[in-house]
Amino acid sequence: MVTSRVPAAVAALLDILRAAPSLADSVHIEDGPTAVNLTDPDRIYVGWQPNSEAAVNLQQDFNAAGARTRDEAFVINCYAESRSGDKDMAARRDRVFEIVGVVETELRASNAFPEAPTLNGSVLWAHITTGDLDQSKSEGTRAGLNFGVACFARI
């Protein structure tokens, strides 16, 4: 018996992002935390945010009397980052929002991908719900955006 849809949802989100044509050649998609790698200026981390202990926050409850099925709500913590050796903060900020915009587009249903909001059938729905922008200038510029992909599933 499946006790959580979290592993399937994280795997599906990674698959969707790695297959996205708009990210394929320019953005490194990372599963969880990794050592800092400045050779890839644009990155998305799935299941990791700076200064956060949790990869995913989840909650379950019975969905009806009889305790036969449960509802599961969870947020996959993610982080997008864009770095450059120049001092143009506006360009980094614009780029990181462009990257997260691609994530949001990939999670929306379309005629070509009607299953998109379900993370390939792993959840009932998923969408971006939160975000926090951070910026720094040290040997160049960096803009990062913490964002959460909220999901709802029935198990």
Search tags:
single chain, alpha+beta, elongated, 6-stranded mixed sheet, 155 residues
Average pLDDT across residues? 91
Class computed from helices, strands and strand pairing? alpha+beta
Please outline the major beta sheet. 6 strands, mixed
- End-to-end separation in angstroms reads 9 Å
Number of helices: 3
Report a brief summary of the structure:
This protein is α+β, with helices and mostly antiparallel strands.
Break the fold down into its secondary structure elements and pairings.
Layout: H1 6-19, H2 21-24, E1 28-31, E2 42-46, E3 56-62, E4 70-84, H3 89-107, E5 125-137, E6 141-154
Parallel strand pairs: 1-2
Antiparallel strand pairs: 2-4, 3-4, 4-6, 5-6
Task: Describe, in plain words, how this protein is organized in 3D.
The chain has 3 helices and 6 strands. Strands 1, 2, 3, 4, 5 and 6 form a 6-stranded mixed β-sheet that branches. The chain is α+β, with helices and mostly antiparallel strands and about 160 residues long. The longest helix is centred in the middle third of the chain and has 19 residues, at about 90-105. Strand 5 (about 125-135) and strand 6 form a beta hairpin. Helix content is about 25%, strand content about 35%. About 30% of the residues are buried.
